[in-house]
Amino acid sequence: MALAGLITAGVIFGFVVVPGVAEPGPLPAVDGTIHVDLETAVNEFPGTRALGAGVDGLEQGEIDKVWTPSNIQAMKAAGFGPISYRLRTELGVKAWHWNPRGTWSDPAAGQGYWVSSDEPREDYKASQGYRLPRRGNTIDQAKNDGYSRLTDGDPTTFWKSNPYLDSHFTGEADDLNPQWIMAAFRHAFPIDTLKFDWGTPFATEFKVQYWSGKDAHFPVDGGKWIDFPQSSHKGTGGTQTVRIAPKPMEVQYLRVALTKDSDTAPAGSTDVRDKLGFALRELSIGQTIDGRFDDHVTHLPSQEQTEMWTSSTDPWHRAGDIDKHYEHASFERLFEGGITNGQPMMVPAPALYGVPEDSAALVRYLKKRGYPVERIEIGEEPDGQLAQPEHYGALYLQMARAMKEVDPALEFGGPGYQTTLPDWVHWPDANGERSWTGRFVSYLRDRNAMEDFDFFSFEWYPFDDVCADPSAPLARHPKLLSDLLARQEKAGLPPDVPKVITEYGYSSFAGQVEVELPGAMINAETAAMFLAMGGETSYYYGLEPNWVFQEKEGKKCNSWGNLMMLQFHDNWRIRPLAAFQAARLVNEYWVQDGDGLHTVHAATSDLHNSRGEPLVTAYALRRPDGSLGVLLFNKDPDRTLKVRLMQKTDGAHEVIDEELRLDQYSAEQYSWHSTQGKGNGGHPEPNDPPAPSVISADAAGTITLPPHSISVAVTQP
Q: 411-417 and 375-378: which strand pairing?
């Protein structure tokens, strides 16, 4: 677009027409105007207490290399406030032993349901995850190196649903929100017959269905589950073959809804959980040809098996199931190492693969340690596991109530969505409702349990394509988030429930853009615009030092990167990247140090691209000392743009003609040079901090913004 096309009608030949000013005076020519409405406050927040960062699990042996005193000081130097403890085990279909000391439900055999000890002793440094030998899902959201026991070809193993979703614990009929199994073939097959090798307990009633849409994983295209012609069956236990259609039907996605169980336990069982739910050793799906069954399922103990998804998985496991590639830093390491800055930490409680007794023990442990904890996020990314909102809701309430018995003052929230655009959805319920949020909230409201829903949490990784030119994503960014939040409230999320982003970054996939200026701009803007949209707290993801790497799917652009602000290089040394300096601009330059009250004011820009999207975005706040801070982003990759700061007070629009401290970050301070995986994968040069300067009052609020830049202008108090 021509530069003239960006100049608004209010800026003419170097003069500005300002309502409420008697005579326009000569001012420097600008490309656009930033209007700060000091009469409209859109939010308030307590300084960096609203600007946090997340810490996550790592590979075996990496905790000791990452969490060194010098690295902790480097992480703290970014200026973040509180910490959110992310739970990698929840994504990897793993049980979490947050304390290596504890008890098994079957202690003699070292197996069963684990409850960590609530007695503090030594600092155990790191905690581990444990594989679930009754796993149902082929795919997970972490290392993805497990597999389903439904199609592993081993008749001695079995999948079992979570006993805490049985009527024994929920107090509701099992057929109200049935457990289910979904088979996802790579393409459609002719299907008319299923073969079950049941475990104990088994289904005594079940229904078989097929998906009518394009992709059952992301049901946004209007598809639904439809009963096969012969869909309803009685389960017999043992080996059972059922005909579901008089002739083969071409089907890619098939679901078995399990509506009633046998309520039987294996011989010698003394634990009520053994008889709750459903167990299945192997599932075969195919067609009958001349009396012979032709199985279309690939039965392998690996990712090469036919892809299976289940409504839940039994968290039962054994001591030998430990997986040390799911290390998490101990609570002692985090709190006593200083990374929490003395502020309460957002602590996780596993929902999908934990037990309520263990969550209650976790709260007791933290209280005995005296660690400040106010909020618990229950579960992480249940939507990424294809969990049903009603099933998550049932587990959420059991976890929350167990922890509330220990500490009634605790606040609970979730579900910690993974980012899926355009929305968070699930298969339609009986009323056709697809919204994950709407159905979760309805589940709680119908049970008079909204008092247990203290905050709504989600993750924000808005761009899947790390190979695309980032200019368009940068421009789209604000509208994506504002539209998403509006849809959640339309779906039923109460407006007064606090909103929390417990992870954010450019993408959930690794790419070079994340270690470049556009990735840093997305990070900084997310924190600021979330506050301007009424959000409460956000947590940056990528606090720990890390290495660049390449996604398997990313080879098309040979893109090496990562979500990180500190890069490991040359034998675990570290150096800051663009995300580090961008964080400082928000946490230390835009926001005033401490937990004083900041007031966010509406700020608008009249600079737009040809699609009407903002080319320059601005975020303004009144700081505790009375100064005005304005955070500015120039999203044009090529052009320097000159803007004028205006403020609205007492009904009049005025130029901000005060002296301004200006700190800017652009290609003059930072540029990434990729080596496409060779050596350290790349390095920044130059790699300088933001450049400070002073704009005199005579400049009449005129600021020059370099291409792809972040700027912070602050008036003197």
A: parallel
Task: Tell me how far CA of residue 346 lies from CA of 48, 107, 195, in angstroms.
Answer: 15, 32, 46
**How are beta strands 499-504 and 455-460 bridged, if at all?**
parallel
Phi, psi torsion values for 170, nearest 5 degrees: -80, -25
Query: Which parts of the chain have pLDDT scores under 70?
Result: 1-25, 420-421, 553-555
- As a whole number of angstroms, the distance between CA 497 and CA 445 comes to 13
Question: Which DSSP string corresponds to 503-531?
Answer: EE-S-SS--GGGGSHHHHHHHHHHHHHHH
Tabulate helix, strand, coil % of the chain (nearest 5).
Answer: 20, 35, 45
Task: Tell me the CATH number for domain 3-44+599-715.
Answer: 2.60.40.1180
Give the model's pLDDT for residue 17.
Answer: 35
Q: What pLDDT does residue 553 have?
A: 63
Q: Which residues fall within 8 angstroms of residue 348, CB to CB, at 6 or more apart?
A: 85, 86, 87, 90, 376, 377, 378, 379, 380
What CA–CA distances, in Å, run from 522 to 366, 481, 662, 672, 708?
34, 12, 20, 16, 11
Strands 11-12 and 15-16: antiparallel
Q: What is the pLDDT of residues 27-75, one digit of tens each?
A: 779 999 999 999 999 999 999 999 999 999 999 999 999 999 999 999 9
Determine the pLDDT at residue 53: 98
Residue 183 C-alpha from the chain's centroid: 26
User: In 174-331, where do the E strands start and end?
Assistant: 179-191, 193-198, 203-211, 225-234, 239-243, 249-261, 279-289, 292-295, 307-310, 317-318, 322-329
For residues 269 and 199, what is the distance between their CA atoms, to the nearest angstrom? 14
CA-based nearest residue to 543, from 511, 561, 565, 567 = 565
CATH of the domain spanning 50-131+318-590, picked from 3.20.20.80, 2.40.37.10, 3.40.50.1240, 3.40.30.10: 3.20.20.80
State the Cα–Cα distance between residues 259 and 206, nearest whole angstrom. 5
DSSP character for 587?
I
Q: Are 517 and 670 in contact (CB under 8 A)?
A: yes
C-alpha–C-alpha distance, residues 444 and 430, integer Å:
18
CATH of domain 159-314: 2.60.120.260
Per-domain residue ranges of the chain: 3-44+599-715, 50-131+318-590, 159-314
